[in-house]
Amino acid sequence: PGTENVIEIVGLGKACEIAKRDLRENALHMKEMRDRLYKGLKDKWHDIKVNGHPEKRLPNTLNVSFHGVEANKLLSEINEQVAASAGAACHAEGVEVSDVIRAMNVPLEWAKGTLRFSTGRMTTYQEIERSIEIILCALKK
Asked: pTM (2 decimals)?
């Protein structure tokens, strides 16, 4: 209740204008970084697959499964260095696969090793290369 915060309303409007103006360029950059991350991992780790449609997906999101890997263990190895989230929760009693991964019919031996990575408009090539190194090192453990 009370007076609207005009300054922040105008700021949000300008931010939306800039986002719309740069949307295509930013989407292309994020897609390039996302695809570079996948290619870098795939080149050196063959038990990996993309979940979802190969082209009709968000330009900034990479959802992959590593065969025979527990996502939570992988996350614990990379957590201070690479931001990611798991598509399955591994517990002592078993594995709880997310509804989305289940709906995509990802087999359990793949689903339990599902991670989601996101790129941004400011993600750099060097950050992607470093992330690939960190993830591959963790996978080898």
From this structure: 0.85
Which active-site residues does the annotation give?
A: 90
C-alpha angle with apex 140: 92 to 93, nearest 5 degrees? 5
Q: Which two tokens stand for residue 87?
A: 């598509």
Q: Sort 94 into a burial class: Cβ within 10 Å, 0-12 / 13-18 / 19+.
A: exposed
Could you count the other beta carbons within 10 Å of the beta carbon of residue 134?
A: 15
Model pLDDT for residues 62-109, shown as the tens digit of each residue: 999 999 999 999 999 998 899 998 875 555 455 678 888 888 889 989
**Residue 6: Cβ within 10 Å count:** 8
